[in-house]
């Protein structure tokens, strides 16, 4: 499995939107702020808010990476990241009043390691944390900007009775903390996505033109103009279909750079049904001569996100290249 998920948060607009994204929930209103490399990051407008991702499974080892900014250094130790066993905390990271980061088990009173790097308020950092969850043979490693800050083994890294974790929690301290470019991986599968990915960027690309197939009906104008907004506007602009097999395909914007490694590509759609008939939708990814269908998703009467992830190019069964990503078409089908 290796790369479990990744997210850049560019299309997220509200906590309701966030809660309808596969695997994610939030404890309250999340908002956008400018990201380091363009696009957006998530933060909170006020109060403490949790951005929680649950895998739906259990993992003895997890690797999480994310870009982090603290606009101010807290007056006292404040948690900003946790590995979870369901709703319970296994271990996590906190920012101290002196600007250092601590790794702890259970609560931030049980400190296992402390960074030597002192964070500067208002600066972005890329954090990665790898933990093997065990009460006697646990291990951990924390990296800042791809460089190991601290590590340990033969440690108790669990707080519950289970030697595993199920998800993560990024904690927004009002508008003080911001997060971007998140990934979560485990150690299964093959390289390079079964360990630290290093400093990564998650970039969103939106439809730019029809690509030969426009079988849905726009509520005005053209099909592409109904689905090319960065944050979905739901019933303001949309395409609709009632016939199974109807497809829309689009070209999309090119990547802003040529990455050395592309760890994965995801196709995301947001859809609902407007009648009592059972309706399903699946995403589509066309690469070269290969069209890859996503899993069929049963629609509700409220909008939900549908997301399918591809760690290799389905046309070549090899790692993605920027050229091949840029040449893909994306879309959806009423099934």
Notes on the protein architecture:
By secondary structure, the chain is mainly beta. The model has no long low-confidence stretch (mean pLDDT 95). 3% of the residues lie in helices and 48% in strands. The relative contact order is 0.16. Strand 7 and strand 8 (88-95) form a beta hairpin. It is globular, with a radius of gyration of 21 Å. The two termini are 27 Å apart. The chain has helices spanning 15-19, 322-327, and strands spanning 3-7, 24-26, 30-34, 40-44, 48-59, 61-70, 78-85, 88-95, 101-105, 111-114, 124-132, 138-144, 147-155, 165-173, 177-185, 207-214, 217-218, 239-240, 247-252, 265-271, 280-287, 290-293, 297-298, 304-310, 329-334. The protein folds into 2 domains: 3-185, Jelly Rolls (Sandwich), CATH 2.60.120; 207-334, Jelly Rolls. The strands form 6 sheets. A 7-stranded antiparallel β-sheet has the order 2-5-14-7-8-9-10. It contains 2 helices and 25 strands.
